[in-house]
Design a protein that fits this description.
The protein is mainly alpha-helical. It is 60% helix and 0% strand. It has helices at 9-30, 37-45, 56-65, 80-98. The longest helix has 22 residues, at 9-30. The protein starts with 8 loop residues before the first helix and ends with a helix.
Length: 100
Amino acid sequence: MIEAAWGSPIEVERRRRIRLAVWAYAYEFLDVSLVSDHRFDEEAQLVDLKVSTGHRQLDAFFRKHFQAYTGQWVRSHPDLRRLAAYTQAVVDGFQAQKAP
C-alpha cells in the first residue's frame, strides 16, 4: 500500500472511496441512508478513477464496477465482510447520535 501524506490527492481519493462504499453498503444492504441522495451523488461525481490509491485490488474493483449514478456497484465489492463490519460500526454510531 502506498503511504500518502495527509491531504494528498491519493489520501483524499482513498477516503472518498471508503466513504462512498460505506454509504452505498448502508443503503443497499441495511436500508439506512447515512447521507442524502444529493450528497452521495456530489461525492460520487468527484471520484477520479485515474488516481491509484495503492490498493491494487480495490483500485481495479473501482475501475471495473464503480458507477457514479448508483450504489449498486457495492454489491460486487471484493471484501464485503470487512466492509459490512466497518459499515455496521458507522451505522451504530450514527444511530446512537440520533437517539434522544
